[in-house]
From TrEMBL:
SUPFAM superfamilies in the record: ATPase domain of HSP90 chaperone/DNA topoisomerase II/histidine kinase, HAMP domain-like
Protein name stated in the entry: Sensor histidine kinase
Protein location: Cell membrane
Residues of the HAMP domain: 306-358
InterPro entries associated with the record: Bact_2-comp_sensor_kinase, HAMP_dom, HATPase_C_sf, HATPase_dom, Sig_transdc_His_kin_internal
Topology in membrane: Multi-pass membrane protein
Protein keywords: Cell membrane, Kinase, Membrane, Phosphoprotein, Transferase, Transmembrane, Transmembrane helix
Upper lineage: Bacteria, Bacillati, Bacillota, Bacilli, Bacillales
Segments traversing the membrane: 20-40, 287-309
Principal place of residence: membrane
One Pfam family linked to the record: HAMP
MF terms (GO), sorted A to Z: kinase activity
Length: 600
């Protein structure tokens, strides 16, 4: 015995096309992500290796350049030993302590000229200074350097004296012999000694500008924005290219080279994060191209899935049409596989259903439409009697203007209901008919009825069934009228793609018991025989059956969820609303029904 596996768990509905698309996209995306990740890691590792090799070459070249530069400064500090005039001046001031002889103008002029010749065309040199033993200072900067010095200004001299005539490289220190002391000065210096006796005659000192070392480093550019440092003895930092020290929280790729001649060490530190950022930039550019390729692949996947699912989607759309009652629809058979066989079976089934509908359902609809057409064209004599009686009274009273208005309005009612047989009219037609009807009732009721029509002109040419508003108005006049003045409002609005026509009053309202009875009559819960037996026509409202007729007409024409609804939730009165689809189809004749009637 065949059986189906039952389950109480509600499963999520996922269309077959969506499943195919997801499958194709996963098959494309997963390999791409795996390959991209591996390529990124391989590329990053390769960049690190290349960076290490390049950094080694860079620091080696910088170390060589730095060594050559220090040798030039070494020769520059030896220059005083080869100038006899300069040596004679230093011999005069060889005595320690306060000078017995002050610096003469001639001495100062000769020394300054000599020192200026050494500093000529050396923009990286801040100043060249010669310190005599007795406290004098010669410099190429007359205005900004003091003329005398003492030990409080020269704590750095101890380092120079320890070199015993060799070149000393001084780390950043304070130069207090300037008129405005300078911080962080880097210098090279040596002791000047008598060639034969080796007696100390003074000290020559070269102060470098901050860009001094930078000019050496700039000849060979390091990669990226890495940190380049030059350190001397005891790892004292002489120069930092970025103006800062390494961050202990970061990971660096380092390369270093140390000069045996100068003892200076050049170190390059490149943050690994920077390399990964460079790799990410390249990856991003590659990713743009890859995304375009992925989009093309996704489009191909969607196209392929559409071709696979298209016959099923076509059959599904035809089933929806049949569900709406369009039994003439047939699905096109495009394949000879199982889907094609299913399509052929569907067409056969719908053809049989269509035959049965024509024999049973459509026959019943035509009978119902005939009944409704007959009902629409009825004008109850009671309404005519009242109107004619009012015409007679106006004639007797000599109110010819009012009489003309009533006769004109009555003529419009007759032409609209009897003269033409259209089933569908414009909203403008219905509004004109209601206006004519209200003018007649207004003459009869006087100030007891106040009617207002608020319908925007944009709804004028929306197509609606004929005679669906007047029964609502007449129902209000017959059942909502009390001792007080009755206010009636007719409005139109749009809700999504539907048209809502509402008649609101502030009359007597509906009790809860009466509301239940009306719902029984409106929505078909009362036996059909009773409902049909008690129907009334235009001008005759019996127990709410005019409202039922309007509701049934809309249901027959449009089906669920269209029809009539009642709302008595307000403190006073009732709102009756009609919901029908927004239809802008052109009528058989151009223009509103009233215009067509006048032309006829």
């Amino acid at each position: 015995m065949p059986f189906r596996k039952g389950t109480n768990k509600k499963t999520l509905y996922v269309p077959l096309r969506t499943k195919f698309i997801i499958l194709f996209c996963l098959l494309i995306t997963i390999p791409f992500v795996v390959i991209g990740t591996i390529s990124y890691k391989k590329y990053t590792a390769g960049v690190e290796r290349s960076t290490v090799e390049l950094s080694d070459q860079v620091v080696s070249q910088i170390s060589i350049n730095l060594e050559h530069y220090i040798k030039e400064l070494d020769r520059l500090t030896l220059a005083p030993l080869y100038d006899e005039d300069m040596m004679q001046i230093l011999r005069k001031h060889r005595g320690a302590g306060p000078a017995s002889t002050y610096l003469t103008t001639d001495e100062t002029l000769k020394m300054n000229l000599f020192i200026s010749s050494l500093a000529f065309d050396r923009g990286e040199i801040e100043s060249i200074l010669v310190f005599t033993n007795d406290g004098g200072i010669f410099s190429n900067l007359d205005q900004s350097v003091r003329k005398r010095w003492d030990r409080s200004m020269a704590e750095w001299m101890e380092t120079i004296e320890q070199e015993d005539g060799g070149l000393a490289i001084l780390p950043p220190h304070t130069a207090a012999y300037y008129t405005e002391p300078k911080q962080g000065v880097i210098s090279v210096a040596r002791v000047i000694r008598e060639p034969y006796t080796h007696a100390m005659l003074g000290i020559v000192k070269v102060d470098l500008m901050p860009r001094g070392f930078g000019s050496i480093v700039s000849t060979v550019r390091s990669s990226g924005s890495g940190l380049l440092q030059i350190t001397g003895k005891d790892q004292v930092v002489l120069y930092s290219g970025a103006g800062r020290l390494p961050d202990s929280r970061e990971s660096y790729i380092t390369a270093s080279a140390e000069s045996s001649y100068t003892g200076l060490k050049v170190t390059s530190l490149i943050p690994r994060a920077q390399l990964r950022e460079d790799a990410r930039e390249l990856t991003n550019s590659t990713l743009v191209v890859s995304i375009v390729a992925l989009m093309a692949a996704y489009a191909a996947a969607i196209l392929l899935s559409s071709r696979l699912i298209k016959p099923i989607a076509h059959l599904q759309s035809k089933m929806r049409q049949v569900k709406r009652g369009l039994f003439l629809e047939r699905a096109t058979v495009t394949t000879s596989d199982e889907i094609g066989q299913l399509t052929e079976g569907f067409n056969t089934m719908i053809g049989e259903i269509d035959r049965l509908v024509k024999e049973v359902y459509e026959t019943r609809l035509k009978e119902r439409e005939a009944e409704l057409l007959a009902l629409q064209s009825q004008i109850h004599p009671h309404f005519l009697y009242n109107t004619l009686e009012m015409v007679n009274m106006l004639a007797l009273q000599g109110n010819t203007r009012e009489l003309s208005g009533v006769v004109t309005s009555l003529g419009k009612l007759l032409r609209y209901t009897v003269g033409h047989r259209e089933q569908m009219v414009y909203v403008l037609d219905e509004v004109r008919f209601v206006e004519a009807y209200l003018r007649i009732q207004g003459m009869r009721l006087g100030d007891k009825l106040q009617a207002v029509i608020h319908i925007d002109s944009s709804f004028d040419y929306c197509v609606v069934p004929k005679l669906i508003l007047q029964p609502l108005i007449e129902n209000v006049i017959e059942h909502a009228m009390g001792q007080d003045r009755l206010h009636l409002t007719l409005t139109a609005s749009a809700r999504e793609e539907d048209l809502i026509l509402s008649v609101k009053d502030d009359g007597l309202g509906i009790t809860a018991g009466r509301m239940l009875e009306l719902e029984e009559q409106l929505y078909g819960r009362q036996p059909r025989a009773v409902a049909d037996a008690e129907q009334g026509g235009f001008g005759r409202i019996l127990k709410g059956f005019a409202l039922r007729n309007v509701h049934q007409r809309l249901r027959l024409l449009y089906g669920e969820p269209y029809g009539l609804t009642l709302d008595n939730t307000a403190g006073r009165g009732v709102t009756v609303s009609l919901r029908l689809p927004m239809n802008w189809e052109a009528m058989n004749n151009t223009g509103p029904a009233g215009d067509r009637q006048e032309e006829a």
